[in-house]
Every structure is written in structure tokens, then in C-alpha cells.
């Protein structure tokens, strides 16, 4: 076994071209103390408690994976992992030392490289700060050291596995790689705090499959097939005061003929004053009803019994629901998905607002430019209501992941540019970095 391991080390490290002719085990101890003690202990346990196969010095290894690991770690500050370059230097030193062919050197180097990789993967797979994950499975998975190392050991191509794991998803990869290329060309290897804030938000985007992204930064909805954009449309998102939150969820059905539940500030500023001025006819013409509670079994309150002056003054709290119809603020279709903030996508009768360049105009929910096109993509057929009843739900053929995010970093002409920071989240990230 020791002879085989020595051969693996010689094959893998010789191909790296690292110049070392004699064993350095007595001259330069491996710098493991600077690695996270928790990660190093978990890696040691992995190798000690299993007949664990070699990963970096496996049979027929050509050293390309070690070179690739080094490059990934050198770039890691642009993943938000500032320790990457330090770990890259330790990986290079350990690999050079293993070239001695000494089984102890190869064994030690194997663990140094695995510990560095575990640290990196755990860093890039951390949850997005502030992201609401509707289900635990939507959070980044596979961050236990044994999961990471077992996956690496089982990979048919270690270089392919390293690339796929470090790239996360196409949106993340494009922004990070462009910023890294710019940094190398200019010599400024300190990442912009705005870049890191955007990559934090981009890391929760799926890497493959069929999904939707609502991006409040661009005010666009993008439909993805096989991990690639297939269609897009404009959206209207939340205001600065009521921003559309970061959410990762799954959409299971669409709702035809939806009710609209008026927010408090619109009841106070618009509905109550008009009810005072125009009387019950205003409520009837707009399909408004006052309810005793928010529920499917709610009863309608006689509008004559309502204190509309108090409602207009904001001292009385009313629950106002609008029936389906041409004036309904939900339009014909609503696209709900589980989340604790009661955020959803929906149609709208007011299409003129989509002509605006900046469209952060809603109360947090997302109005879509073309609900029919979105419904067709989700359902696989033209979205036709099965009847005239309110709130008619039709299930999708399969659940579709949806991510609400905020990406102001855009790649244009081979460079990273930044859109206006309408929510101030990029500025806040920069201030936090400056304060540290």
C-alpha cells in the first residue's frame, strides 16, 4: 500500500513541474496549523476512519487537478474567500514536498489539499445572507467534509468536478470570471465590495434545470431551460421603502381570477377617501368589499357600517378585497409560491408602467409584463381559466424553482459594470467592508 501511494505521489506531482529533488520532510514541515482546525480534524477523521481512496494522488493522476485547485484558491478572494491565496501557497508547498516520494509526505500532502478544498467548498456554498429559503433543501447542499471528499473521490474526472463545483451557476461564473480577468489585467487583486455582495446573492441561483429568476436589480424576469436563459420580460418590483425580498422557493400552481387584497396605505390614501366622497357606488364599480377577516370563509361587512373617516385618517384598520374583473390589480393571473412574506407574481391591468426604465414601483410583490406568456411557459399550454369562479387554482405539471434576487453587477463588453443601487444594498455591503 505504501509503495502504491508513493507512486501516486510521484506521478501526480512530477507533472506539476515543481522543482524539488530530495525529501523536505525534515526541513519544511507542512503548514497545517494555519488551516481551520475544525476542517483539518474532519478531514483527518475521514481518512482515518475509512479505507478512503486517494483523491489528489490517485493512480494515473497527472497533476492537472492539483494545478487547478491552486488556481481556484488563488482566485478565491473573488468568491468572497479571502484565505484562498494563503491556502494555495500551502497546497503548492505540500505538493512539492510530496514529490520526494516519501509515503509520509504524500499522505500529509493528501490531507493538506483535501482540507483546503473543504474550506473552499464550504465558503462558496454558504447560504446567501438575507435569503428566505422556503424549504431547507433549497439551501446550498453538500457542505459536510465527508460529503465533499466522497464526491471528489467518486468523480470520474477530478478536473471537471473542481470546475463544476467552483462555478456554482452560469450567472455567478460569468460575473466572477469577468471580474477576475479584469483584476489580473490591471493588477488590482482586491475585489470590489459591490462585486462580493452581488456574488453572495447570485450563489443561490440554480445551476441546471428549469427555473425562474426575478431580478430586482434589472427589473427583469428570466425563464431558464437547462440552466440557460430561454425568455425574459420586464417586471415591476418593490419600492425602496418596500423592497422585494430575497426568496428561494418552488412554484406549484397558478391562480386564475384572483382576488386582490388592498394594502393598508392604499385603503387609507385612495379607497377610504373615495368611499367618503362617492359613496357605495364607488365600492361597487371597483369590486371592493370590506371583509371581517383574511380567510377563504370571510364574510362581507356592510359598507354602511364602516367608519370611513377613521379609515381615511388611519385610525381604523379595514380589510378590503377586490373581486376579479378588468379593474382588479392582480389582472387575470396570479403566480403564488410558498414564502412567509406573502410575496407573489401577478398580472396587472396597468401596462403603461412597463415603459419606465426604472420600475421599483410596487409594494413588494412582482407585476409581470406578459402573464399569458409566463403562464404558457409554466403550464405548457395556453393559460385559459377553467371557469369564472374567483381564485381557481391549476397545478403545474411539475414544481418550478423560483429565485427572487438583486443583481446589479452586469457583464457588458467584457467588463463588470454596476446598475443603479435602487435598494442601497450594495452601498450597505461596501460600508460593512470599510468598517471591518
UniProtKB/TrEMBL annotation:
TM annotation in the entry: none
Active site (UniProt): 346, 365
Signal peptide, first to last residue: 1-26
Domain L,D-TPase catalytic: 210-405
SUPFAM superfamilies: L,D-transpeptidase catalytic domain-like
Pathway named in the protein's UniProt entry: Cell wall biogenesis; peptidoglycan biosynthesis
Swiss-Prot/TrEMBL keywords: Cell shape, Cell wall biogenesis/degradation, Peptidoglycan synthesis, Signal, Transferase
Keyword match Cell wall biogenesis/degradation: yes
Pfam families: Scaffold, YkuD
Family per similarity comment: Belongs to the YkuD family.
Protein name, entry field: L,D-TPase catalytic domain-containing protein
Amino acid at each position: 500500500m505504501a509503495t502504491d501511494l508513493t507512486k501516486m505521489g510521484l506521478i501526480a506531482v512530477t507533472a506539476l513541474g515543481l522543482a524539488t529533488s530530495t525529501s523536505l520532510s525534515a526541513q519544511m514541515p507542512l503548514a497545517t496549523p494555519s488551516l481551520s482546525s475544525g476542517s483539518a480534524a474532519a478531514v483527518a477523521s475521514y481518512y482515518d476512519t475509512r479505507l478512503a481512496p486517494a483523491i489528489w494522488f490517485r493512480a494515473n493522476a497527472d497533476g492537472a487537478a492539483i494545478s487547478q485547485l491552486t488556481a481556484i484558491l488563488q482566485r478565491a478572494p473573488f468568491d468572497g474567500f479571502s484565505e484562498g491565496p494563503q491556502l494555495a501557497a500551502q497546497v503548492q508547498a505540500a505538493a512539492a514536498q510530496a514529490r520526494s516520494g516519501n509515503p509520509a509526505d504524500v499522505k500529509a500532502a493528501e490531507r493538506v489539499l483535501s482540507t483546503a478544498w473543504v474550506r473552499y467548498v464550504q465558503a462558496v456554498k454558504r447560504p446567501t445572507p438575507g435569503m428566505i429559503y422556503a424549504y431547507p433543501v433549497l439551501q446550498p447542499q453538500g457542505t459536510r467534509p465527508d460529503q465533499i471528499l466522497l464526491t471528489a473521490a467518486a468523480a470520474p474526472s477530478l478536473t471537471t468536478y473542481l470546475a463544476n463545483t467552483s462555478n456554482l451557476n452560469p450567472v455567478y461564473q460569468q460575473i466572477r470570471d469577468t471580474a477576475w480577468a479584469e483584476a489580473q489585467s490591471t493588477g488590482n487583486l482586491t475585489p470590489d465590495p459591490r462585486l462580493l455582495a452581488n456574488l453572495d446573492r447570485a450563489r443561490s441561483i440554480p445551476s441546471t434545470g428549469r427555473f425562474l429568476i426575478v431580478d430586482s436589480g434589472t427589473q427583469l424576469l428570466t425563464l431558464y431551460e437547462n440552466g440557460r436563459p430561454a425568455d425574459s420580460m420586464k417586471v415591476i418590483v418593490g419600492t425602496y421603502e418596500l423592497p422585494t425580498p430575497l426568496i428561494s422557493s418552488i412554484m406549484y400552481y397558478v391562480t386564475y381570477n384572483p382576488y386582490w387584497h388592498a394594502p393598508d396605505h392604499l385603503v387609507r390614501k385612495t379607497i377610504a377617501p373615495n368611499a367618503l366622497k362617492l359613496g357605495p357606488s364607488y365600492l361597487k364599480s371597483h369590486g371592493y368589499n370590506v371583509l371581517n377577516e383574511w380567510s377563504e370563509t370571510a364574510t362581507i361587512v356592510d359598507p354602511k357600517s364602516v367608519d370611513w373617516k377613521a379609515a381615511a385618517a388611519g385610525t381604523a384598520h379595514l380589510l378590503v378585497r377586490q373581486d376579479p374583473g378588468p379593474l382588479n390589480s392582480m389582472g387575470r393571473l396570479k403566480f403564488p409560491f410558498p414564502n412567509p412574506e406573502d410575496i407573489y407574481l401577478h398580472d396587472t391591468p396597468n401596462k403603461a408602467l412597463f415603459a419606465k426604465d426604472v420600475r421599483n414601483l410596487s409594494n413588494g410583490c412582482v407585476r409581470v409584463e406578459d402573464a399569458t406568456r409566463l403562464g404558457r411557459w409554466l403550464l405548457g399550454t395556453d393559460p385559459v381559466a377553467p371557469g369564472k369562479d374567483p381564485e381557481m387554482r391549476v397545478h403545474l405539471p411539475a414544481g418550478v424553482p423560483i429565485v427572487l434576487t438583486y443583481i446589479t453587477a452586469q457583464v457588458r463588453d467584457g467588463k463588470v459594470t454596476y446598475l443603479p443601487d435602487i435598494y442601497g444594498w450594495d452601498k450597505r455591503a461596501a460600508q460593512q467592508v470599510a468598517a471591518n
